[in-house]
Amino acid sequence: MKALLNSLNEDEKALVRETGSGELADLEEDGLVDLHTRIRRARDKYAKLYRRTASTRVAEHGGRGKARPKNLRNAQKAEVFEDALARVSWYLARAARRSASALKAERVAAAQPDRRHPRPAAPAAPRKRSRTTARLRPTGADPARSRREAATRAKGARRQARRDAR
Predict the structure, then answer these.
(1) Closest alpha carbon to 13 in 51, 42, 47
(2) Which conformational region is residue 66 in: left (phi greater than 0), alpha (psi within -120 to 50 degrees), or beta?
(3) What is the largest CA-CA distance in the chain?
(4) Where in the sequence does UniProt note compositional bias of the Basic residues kind (predicted)?
């Protein structure tokens, strides 16, 4: 990996250096979007170069996989930029969630009137659920139980469909 990073030109090295955690933590959402776009373009460039070069060698080598050793540098560069893109995407998603929650809080605050003495909320009446609804919904957060119950319901539905078809 280090040898490949040393084979990048200065612009590409600078672009990869911008994806360090210290640099990404300082950027705001707009800066992250810009960096994300630049890295995605670099990744796409080398991925296209790899595919195009490999496809021209298919006739000579008999397949793109067999032609890969001759085209390894483009594939590795695409992977370097793919890793950098993943890091930037993670930070961008985090910044987007943060700004979305701040915007939501602003909207909620703007929508609520300024009340000095809020009225006490009326207690909500308990909702009645039918026995079948209560039975069909999983009670816990156990994914295995949810799958098992779903399989049981599906099996019953298949049996009923077979009976109806007769």
Answers:
(1) 42
(2) alpha
(3) 82
(4) 155-166
Residues 139-152 have a mean pLDDT of 81
pLDDT tens digits, one per residue of 92-116: 999 999 999 999 998 988 888 765 5
Enter the pTM of the model: 0.60
34-93 tens-digit pLDDT: 999 999 999 999 999 988 888 888 788 777 677 777 778 888 899 999 999 999 999 999
What DSSP letter does each residue of 11-33 carry, written as one string? HHHHHHHTTSHHHHHH--HHHHH
How far apart, in whole angstroms, are the C-alpha atoms of residue 17 and residue 61?
A: 36
The answer to whether 145 and 153 have CB atoms below 8 angstroms apart is no
Long-range contacts of 21-30 (CB under 8 A, 24+ apart): 21/87, 24/87, 24/88, 24/91, 25/91, 27/91, 27/95, 28/95, 29/92, 29/95, 29/96, 29/99
Which secondary structure element, helix H or strand E, spans residue 10, and what is its range? helix 10-17
DSSP string, 23-69: HHHH--HHHHHHHHHHHHHHHHHHHHHHHHHHHHTHHHHSSTTTTGG
Residue 27: closest CA among 38, 40, 36, 39:
36
